[in-house]
Amino acid sequence: MAEFKVTPWDVEGMVDYDKLIKEFGTQPLTDELLEKTAVLTKSELPLYFRRRFFFSHRDYDLVLKDYEEGRGFFLYTGRGPSGPMHIGHIIPFFATKWLQEKFGVNLYVQITDDEKFLFKPNLSFEDTKRWAYENILDIIAVGFDPDKTFIFQDSEFTKIYEMAIPIAKKVTYSMAKAVFGFTEQSKIGMIFYPAIQAAPTFFEKRRCLIPAAIDQDPYWRIQRDFAESLGYYKTAALHSKFVPPLTGLEGKMSASKPETAVYLTDDPEEAGKKIWKFALTGGQPTVKEQREKGGNPEKCVVFKWLEIFFEPDDKALLERYHACKSGALLCGECKRYLIKKVQEFLKEHQKRREKAKDEIEKFKYTGELAREQWDKAIPEPLRR
Amino acid sequence: MAEFKVTPWDVEGMVDYDKLIKEFGTQPLTDELLEKTAVLTKSELPLYFRRRFFFSHRDYDLVLKDYEEGRGFFLYTGRGPSGPMHIGHIIPFFATKWLQEKFGVNLYVQITDDEKFLFKPNLSFEDTKRWAYENILDIIAVGFDPDKTFIFQDSEFTKIYEMAIPIAKKVTYSMAKAVFGFTEQSKIGMIFYPAIQAAPTFFEKRRCLIPAAIDQDPYWRIQRDFAESLGYYKTAALHSKFVPPLTGLEGKMSASKPETAVYLTDDPEEAGKKIWKFALTGGQPTVKEQREKGGNPEKCVVFKWLEIFFEPDDKALLERYHACKSGALLCGECKRYLIKKVQEFLKEHQKRREKAKDEIEKFKYTGELAREQWDKAIPEPLRR
């Protein structure tokens, strides 16, 4: 069996997701839970759930029960602004948007400009604040409800510090070290950071649901250890797989290797060229062989990208699968199809991203939920 | 020679202050510096300086130079709100008030309700916030300029978190451990705290002067290590001695032993009884012996309290000294004199403390300096 490694700071090799569920001690996202989701939302499931891009969870059953019984829940996710966002970063936000829309719940998006500055030796605070702005535009472009979504930067919404304090009294150096691998040379800001990341799970006295890639799960284990002792819920989570890099099915896309990813701000023409040049397919070495033996969609990044995001039509995807297997479809055609889909997406996203510049103030400060949170943060005499 | 120990969390034994200057590597507060202070402020020095209650410093010479050459400086001090304040806590605030008034400079007073909650296992966050309110009243009663003084609680003025981040990227766990003695079981909030305490030294792009008891000096050594690398000044400090407990010249007053201290909120009658009962004097066992041999003002807490704070008249103090040495003065008379002075002080202080309830908003939020700091902390769209 292929070796693989998944930690919050590293994903290597071909990931065995069933094994990951056992290793991390999470639960598989069952047919039953997905059916219940469809029933409660009176909606068809989007491809992220239908196709098991989200495949594992913690306490999602309890989230649905809370919703069913009127206690409700809220969503929390985040982004570490250390560079531009790519396709792999944005897909979980689309799944989150679906959840917000269908369940009608609040969403908190933490932009951890403090974390990225602290953990990246070569980034200045100015850098991460600048990336925060850029990344927020991409997030807004997904189309969240501006009155039910609060996007906050840790360096600005510093009320988060006060909320982190009781958490930081529950977590010892030894506990944090076990999860994050700190050493004597770790900076004291890094050591404190887990408290800042856990704080938003207490923004409401309801259960918190975090949709995120499974590598983020260890961060929440500490929260689940002490949450109840502070009178709150253990946070729930929905875990996604990774979007594979263009260059192969192993690992995840990396900001330091531009050929592995399509960035949301890439020029569509250039993105097309990049896919054409770097995308790994499951095809045979020659057209002749392909016609005879057929391709391997299971080993094909192009097919994976279509499956995960770019081909929402199940019937079309299945036809493509069989056409590939039978040798009727050649890799060039398939790549061109993906390129068209990616370019359409980028054009549309970039248009919405431009519009987001006018909406940023609402999501960060003046929307209903944002205003409510800031009102709690600013002392009364200064609000007059 | 008597053993003694001075760390930020413990003072034991009879302190040898000259030895402390050598051990801590600070500078003695020389006649020359005090004369320069008098000249620059065009004022007579108050007893705290005249009588060397402040006895040591770091870079106070540079502070005076900055002032002289028009660059100015600012003052920073603080209070950890874990209980009521006593005489020993308030005296450095009087010295600070003198410095503010005479140099006309800004003062920042940090109320560390986060620190006390994090470091005291038995205090709740609500407890330290409540003590913050009580302590702030005592501090305001000292008579600071409400437009040049910003009193802020860490749990409220959380902008401090953002300012602490670049500091927290400079300090490793190992550095913090060396100063604070952290262990594997230390809470991650405690480990981060040194960054929060250092942040106010960067509130202005001028040199910061911290008047505080010498046991606080180690906290600032870390600041002095990295300040210049962040483009700021190493902080300067003026170090005071400790006000001895009523019960003897060793150690310092302790909140856990009420007989050692006079609290600012003590009923003046009760305070008088406490002094009468517990104050250690340098007297002889009998009146007869006292008349023959004379007393020991050097070993007398009553005399020390008069010297440090309650007898500002140098001539009167000297006469008292000689009267004691000669046997003319008995301990009872001296105690009664101190009691009268303490009671007068308490009555006056408690009156001003009552008035402080109407001024608290100005010092915390709406005074000129407070407003300026909050304006930096609240994002523009929320200030409209």
Write the layout of secondary structure elements.
The structure is a homodimer of 384-residue chains.
Chain A (H helix, E strand, L loop, with lengths): L3 E4 L2 E4 L3 H8 L2 E2 L2 H11 L5 H4 L3 E5 L1 H9 L4 E7 L7 H17 L3 E5 L1 H7 L5 H17 L7 E5 L5 H10 L4 H8 L7 H11 L8 E7 L3 H10 L9 E5 L27 H11 L8 H7 L7 H10 L3 H13 L4 H26 L3 H7 L1 H10 L7
Parallel strand pairs in A: 5-6, 5-8, 6-7, 8-9
Antiparallel strand pairs in A: 1-2, 3-4, 4-9
Helix pairs in contact in A: 2-4, 6-7, 7-16, 8-10, 12-16, 14-16, 17-18
Mean pLDDT of chain A: 94
User: How many domains of chain A?
Assistant: 2
* CATH architecture classification of the largest domain in chain A: 3-Layer(aba) Sandwich
Number of helices of chain A: 18
Largest β-sheet summary of chain A: 7 strands, mixed
State the helicity of chain A in percent bands.
40-55%
